Structures are given as C-alpha cells and as structure tokens.
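Protein modeling request. Please complete all fields; requests missing the sequence field cannot be processed.
Requester role: graduate student
Desired output: 3D structure, token encoding
Chains: 1
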Amino acid sequence: MNINRRGLPAAVTVIALSGLVLPACTETTTDPLQSAAGGSTRVTAENPDAVLQPAAKLAKDTQEAATHDRRQSKLPYIGAWAASAQGCAQIDQSVYDSFAVITPTSIRQFEEFCTYSPPPTTSNVHRLNVTCTAEGETSKRVITIEMVNGQTMRFQNSTPDGRTWEMYRCHLPYS
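Delivered output (175 residues):
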C-alpha cells in the first residue's frame, strides 16, 4: 500500500468540483435524532461510540488533536471531530470524508490540509483565517466554528452555499 506524506493511504484523494473543495460532513438538522450519517445520536461523554482507533493507528496530527490540553491552551475546538459517533472509528483508517482534525495550527478535512494562527478566544464562535492546500491548489478563506458544548460544534467552511455542519468530538479508547 502506498502511503502519502500525511501517513494516509495514497488512494485517499480530494474530490474537487470546479476548483472548489467542499467538506463532506453531515449537514445540521433541526431534529437531534436525524442526521445524514445514519440517524446516530449526538455524541456526549456518555456516548461510548465516539471512539477513535488506538493512537498507534492514527496519523500524527490526529494523535496531537486528541491529546491536546484544551484547558491550558483555551482553544475549545482543538480535537478530532466526526459527523457521527461511528465515524470517529473511521478517521485515518479508510476513505472517510466527514471529519475534521484540528490542532492548534492546522485543520485537516478529508485530503485538504489548512494552516492558521489561532485568534484570541473571546466567545463560543471562532473565525479562523486559513490557507488550505488540496491537490496542489492553494486557497484562503474563513472557517467558522461555533462551540455548542464541549462535545459538539457547528463547523462552517466558507463556501458559496454557506452550509454549516454539526460535528462531534471523538476521543481515544480508554486504557
């Protein structure tokens, strides 16, 4: 198996339409039990399904995101996120496009990799000015993250349609 520079199978590629890379995350719904990701329930500390694979099977940035001390950095959005609890186990394992891995300086969605400088935290809404690379193309835009609670965020990747996706925090398996 060929492995790319991020430690993922080379078969994982970005789907780009007309030069615009769109994240393929679950769209926010008004019904908490309904989601395009198979009707899974919301991920909370009590939801044992929001588990990543063991750290040894994860890319370096996913490990960093999942073990980051958010209390010390005061960056509540740092972590590994998926559109469903069951999606957490798929991050870095197979072609899965409904996730975001956020470290203090980068955001990875599918095969798009973005860098940013964290702005000061002043509310539960965070606007990140990012520079992204996908398939050799570079673009600049704003990603807006609204923290709903410690386990849920609304993620908006500035695209022409302005869609927002709800994503749920993934955690490492308990030892």
